[in-house]
Amino acid sequence: MFIDVHAHAYLYDYPPQDGYTQFATAEEVIQRYDELGIEKGILLPLIGPETYIPQSNAEVMEICKRYPDRFIPFFNIDPRGIKNSEFTDFSPWIDWFKERGCLGVGEFMPNLRFLDPRVLNMFRQFEAAGLPVIFDDTVYVNYHYGLVDDPGLPQLEMVLNMFPKLILLGHGPAFWSEIGVLETVYDRGRYPNYPIKEEGAVPKLFRRYQNLWGDLSAGSGYNALARDVDYAVHFLNEFQDRLCFGTDICYAKQNLPLAGFLIDLKKSGRISEDVFEKIARGNIKRLLNI
After folding, report:
1. Distance between terminal CA atoms of the chain?
2. Distance of alpha carbon 7 from alpha carbon 97, whole angstroms
3. What is the largest CA-CA distance in the chain?
4. 59 within 8 A of 87, measured Cβ to Cβ
5. pLDDT value, residue 20
6. Residue ranges of the chain with pLDDT lower than 50?
7. pLDDT value, residue 13
8. Cα separation, 158 vs 208, whole angstroms
9. FRET label pair with 129: which of 19, 94, 111, 261, CA 20 to 30 Å apart?
């Protein structure tokens, strides 16, 4: 029924990495997939120094090799790698991962500004390679992980304009919180629980840039919809061709409400079977040609 655009799994049963998040093994993710009716998922390596236990691309590729019917590999490259320069040529590594079956990039989340020259260098090369990119973002430099933007997402807009053939899948609280106009700037990067009285930057960018897609995973994607179901129905219908179901599963017992939310909208007739199918699996199949 579903294809998960955003998943994480480790080969090893590591201890909790921030006091509570004990990342799931591949087998635990598959068990949750079976419970939720998820056919397969895209595994995103967590490579950056700001993330939990940094994970190699090779580990994700090995998991996908063991379970080829359940997982699809993406790869990840930190733009600070190999000389920490805006002029680094990453194409040999990009080509190497493509040749070995990686279909996209993510979760791309260095704690740098969108317009940092090293980030732009990376986006330029991802665009040339024809690879979609799932990014995470945040609101501060030197604060955990994620690309950094300003209120209203102007840096993301400049990137979308600079690289019109680069498909970027928006993800994370700093992105999805701006589905509506925020009551205060403090709500950026958080989980606003009030209705959407006026559209924010996200739907406006969706209308303006066809290369912007939406990764609906995690609490951020779910909250963007569940905080105002009436607006969610409008948003899902309008942008039905560029939205993708996801979980962002990290630990085995994680609450994953998005699948049930979308099923309920379909059953109630608020979204059609066709819209549901696109968001649940059709859009990502079309994007990745799988």
Report:
1. 15
2. 18
3. 54
4. no
5. 64
6. none
7. 79
8. 12
9. 111
Torsion over CA: 240, 241, 242, 246 (sign): positive
Give the pLDDT confidence score for residue 53 in this predicted structure: 74
The closest alpha carbon to 14, from 35, 28, 31, belongs to: 28
Q: Which residues pair with 244 in a beta bridge?
A: 215
Could you tell me the CA-to-CA distances from 97 to 68, 83, 158 in Å, in that order?
16, 20, 28
CA distance 38 to 258: 12
Give the residue among 53, 49, 3 at the shortest CA–CA distance from 23: 53
CA distance 125 to 148: 20
Q: Say how far apart CA 196 and CA 24 lie, in whole Å.
A: 34
Q: What is the pTM of this model?
A: 0.96
How much is the pLDDT for 19? Answer: 64
Among 139, 131, 140, which residue's Cα sits nearest to residue 167?
Answer: 131
